[in-house]
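Q: How do we represent a protein-ligand complex in a form that can be generated token by token?
A: Start from the inputs.
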Amino acid sequence: MCSQTGANHLVSEHPEQERRLVDEVYSVTSGRPVTFADVNRLPHTCNVITEAMRLRPAAWIFTRRSVATTHLGPYRIPAHSDIAYSPYAMQRDPRSFAHHLEFDPDRWIPDRAAAVPKLAMMPFGTGNRQCPGDHFALAELVIILATVSAQWRLQPGPGTDSTTKIGITLHPKRLLMRAEPRQPLKTPVSNTPGH
Ligand code: HEM
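Then emit the structure tokens for the protein with protoporphyrin IX containing FE bound:
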């Protein structure tokens, strides 16, 4: 599932997270457009994106080929074997994540995130083929989620079937989100000098 779609849908199902997200964006921007410089000042928004990528990673299965015979735990892997592994399964492993199926963005608050085992979370893959666009993608996702959420309340509309469809990537079968303009919490600050 596209990370942005996943985040929008998960937020729509968790009103408390939605309120915190909108409050955070507004406390940083006071209604002006979100900019790249805001990304580091939106930790909760970033945690929402990270948690959406944990539960609904777009890339759900990766492959590798062993160049030499090796061992992984109790398993012997002969040279030239094809190996498939799934971040979808690993990121829902109860040994790594308490309340593993719950959407809990606060698990990425640094104190709690420190308890997550290394490589239990890998929506961008790992190793020498890890996605080189990971930081760019995260910043982009934070800016889009903050921008959209501050102005629109997204709710699933009639005819939605959000069950997961498996393809090269994961995505919902038919997710139709209705966008309602959000009432400004306070008077937006104008970007135009002198206005
Ligand atoms: C949410 C957005 C994105 C996700 C979830 C994502 C995920 C991934 C994953 C899982 C891989 C394979 C990693 C592996 O095999 O270990 C990959 C590879 C790659 N990604 Fe991304 N990606 C995203 C955005 C981007 C962006 C924005 C760019 C470029 C600006 C990018 C460029 C690449 C490239 C070039 C590779 C191939 C790297 C290689 O094989 O050496 N990706 N990405």
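The first strand starts at residue 62 and ends at 65. Residues 60 and 88 are 5 Å apart (CA to CA).
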